[in-house]
Amino acid sequence: MRDVSSTDVLICGAGAAGLTLAVDLARRGINFRLIDQAAEPFRGSRGKGIQPRSLEVFDDLGVLERMAAMGGPYPPFRNYRDTDYEDTDFVETRPLTPAEPFARPLMLPQYLTEGVLRDRLASLGHRVEFGSELVALVQDRQSVSAKVEIGDAVETVHARVLIGADGGHSFVRRALDIGFGGETLPGRGLVADVSLDGLGRETSHRWNAGRPFEQILLFPLAGTGLFQFQAPVPAQSEVDVSPQGLQRLIAERSGRSDIHVHSVQWSSVFGMNMRVADHYRAGRVLLVGDAAHVHPPTGGQGLNTSIQDAYNVGWKIAAVLRGAPDGLLDSYEAERRPVALSVLELTLAFLRAAQRGDMRRGREAHEMDLGYFNSPLSFDGRATKGKLRAGARAPDAPCHRADGSAIRLFEIFRGPHWTLIATGGDGSKQMSLPDGIRSIAIGPNSDVHDTDGNFREAYDVSAGDCVLVRPDGYVGAIVPAGQEPALQKYFAQVFPNPAK
Ligand SMILES: Cc1cc2nc3c(=O)[nH]c(=O)nc-3n(C[C@H](O)[C@H](O)[C@H](O)COP(=O)(O)OP(=O)(O)OC[C@H]3O[C@@H](n4cnc5c(N)ncnc54)[C@H](O)[C@@H]3O)c2cc1C
After folding, report:
1. pLDDT for 290-317, tens place per residue?
2. pLDDT in tens, 313-351
3. Which of 64, 99, 148, 452 could in theory staple to 395 by disulfide, Cβ–Cβ 3.0 to 4.6 A?
4. Atom of ligand 1 at shortest distance to CA of 170?
5. Phi and psi for 302 in degrees, rounded to 5?
């Protein structure tokens, strides 16, 4: 093994955030390494709900089809009362619309989600270096020097950028002395993946709704024969997580003696924290995922927020490494830290509701309406704004090609490029565009026809306006005809300067 090496990006931590970033960088042809201190992949269900916005991200990264084939929808909840039960659908289903192709979260245990990401990474020629722990780092203006322990050996890795994707106890965050303000909430939770009999798999099961310290939940985990068991547990008590211990807890809280726990694949007793890092960037080091924010698991937001952090920063790292202005990396914190703060509030509201017995999850859990409206990268040059704002998620829209075949905007967006949509003509074709932008025209005599008015309905722009869609599927700029210089100014913020 080499004891000194160099790479463009060193990603520390191969959980959901690190893997998502690695897949994105791999498809962009960026040179990186992905290390994890664990000897092997983690085998716990943890974040089992992939929200609609993350499904769109995974669609773009080319992993959704496999995840959808392995996972499944959330079944309804069976709420047991004294003598009977009631089934309720706790995940609100929206009607599918042309603008939003995914209406429900997908249930897939986190270890299966991560497995699909690792396979995708392998197909792109990369792998996780397990058994490799980051133990020290220093940085100067040019690079970060990271000391990695691999068994008895130590390797020094010089990287242009280091990513702390190393979870809630982040070594990277602590090494940089970045504050992690917030609070620890009272109470603890138990979660375990168990094999059992005595319960059907067509519903989830819940006893003692509204009695916070007596409640138990059992979810049949899609893609496995297991159930995920969840229960609040008293502070500072010993919790017996053996099969016998969990069977006893289920019997005590449900009154059922016919549920038999055979084995426990994974379990965790966890405290609940609500914390956000004071900064997401320190020089050449960036924090993503739980390293930057932690919150209660209620509402299934942690995994999703982590994935979307990685998706936000991936294209920015690639652009800066190729010569875009370094300030582009500052927009990561400007965009994602406010999102984490809002997710904290949301998960706290979900936690309080769950303690009252209300487990319903609506659109607010789907992460579809999160946007970067106050970001330095969101520009709208129109005198009168429309209903779609710069910084919003760019909606999908089923359209047709000139030859009459069907095409969705999401198919055009798919891939690492930007998309410039010119409306009512093909003005953008005469414009000089940086490499890495795909330009299309939507209109009667253009490449793409808005046959059913889906684009008009979702985008609400006027003929002549151009919409610039970022690689991560957010509206970067809306520029009316005649404001091409504003577009060129925008490009200068996010693309390498070809003159340099
Ligand atoms: C008990 C539990 C239940 C949860 N339930 C839900 C849920 O229902 N819904 C939901 O959305 N989220 C849930 N979460 C949260 C979700 O699992 C996390 O938000 C998600 O795992 C964050 O991903 P990450 O990649 O940022 O961090 P992690 O998954 O924690 O990955 C960090 C990785 O970094 C590695 N690492 C750490 N230090 C080093 C080092 N020094 N060197 C090298 N590698 C290192 C670790 O080995 C690990 O693999 C739950 C979490 C827990 C713990």
Report:
1. 999 999 887 778 999 999 999 999 999 9
2. 999 999 999 999 999 999 999 999 999 999 988 888 888
3. 99
4. 38
5. -60, -50
Nearest ligand 1 atom to the CA of 42 is: 49
**Residues 262, 270: Cα–Cα separation, whole Å:** 23
Could you check whether 4-73+106-182+274-365 and 379-494 share the same CATH topology?
A: no
Place of tokens 């979900």: 350
How far, in Å, from the CA of 18 to the mean position of ligand 1?
A: 10
Distance of alpha carbon 274 from alpha carbon 291, whole angstroms:
12
Phi, psi of 234 (to 5 degrees): -60, 150
Ligand 1 pocket test: pick from 36, 108, 266 the residue with the most ligand atoms within 8 Å of its Cβ. Answer: 36
**Residue 439 and residue 422 in contact, taking contact as beta carbons nearer than 8 Å:** yes
DSSP 8-state class, residue 25? H
Please choose, from the candidates 257, 217, 256, 255, the residue with its C-alpha nearest in 3D space to the C-alpha of residue 233.
217
- Ligand 1, atom 4: nearest CA belongs to which residue? 46
Residue that has been written with the tokens 């924010």 in this structure: 293
Q: Does 1.10.3470.10 match the CATH number of domain 185-272?
A: no
Pairing label, strands 285-287, 153-164: parallel
| Residues 403-427: b if buried by 16+ CB within 10 A, e if exposed | eeeebebbebbeebbbbbbbbbbbb
CA 182 from centroid of its chain's CA atoms: 22
At 89-145, the pLDDT tens digits run: 877 777 889 999 998 999 999 999 999 999 999 999 999 999 999 999 999 999 999
Class of domain 4-73+106-182+274-365: alpha beta
Atom of ligand 1 nearest to the CA of 288: 26
Q: Where are the domains of the chain?
A: 4-73+106-182+274-365, 185-272, 379-494
Strands (DSSP E) contained in 340-465 are: 379-380, 398-401, 406-408, 418-423, 437-442, 448-449
Ligand 1 cavity residues, CB under 6 Å:
12-18, 35-38, 42, 46-49, 110, 133-134, 165-167, 171, 191, 268, 270, 289-291, 297, 300-304, 306
Residue with tokens 């055009």: 412
* CA separation for the pair 484, 104 (Å, rounded): 39
CATH value of 379-494 in 3.20.20.70, 3.40.30.120, 1.10.760.10, 3.40.50.300: 3.40.30.120
Q: How far is CA 194 from CA 88, 204, 211, 219, 259, in A?
A: 23, 14, 23, 10, 12
Flag whether the pTM goes above 0.85: yes
Crossing angle for the helix pair 330-355 and 302-321, nearest 10 degrees?
A: 180
Name the DSSP class of 230: E
| Nearest by Cα to 162 from 20, 13, 38, 2 | 13
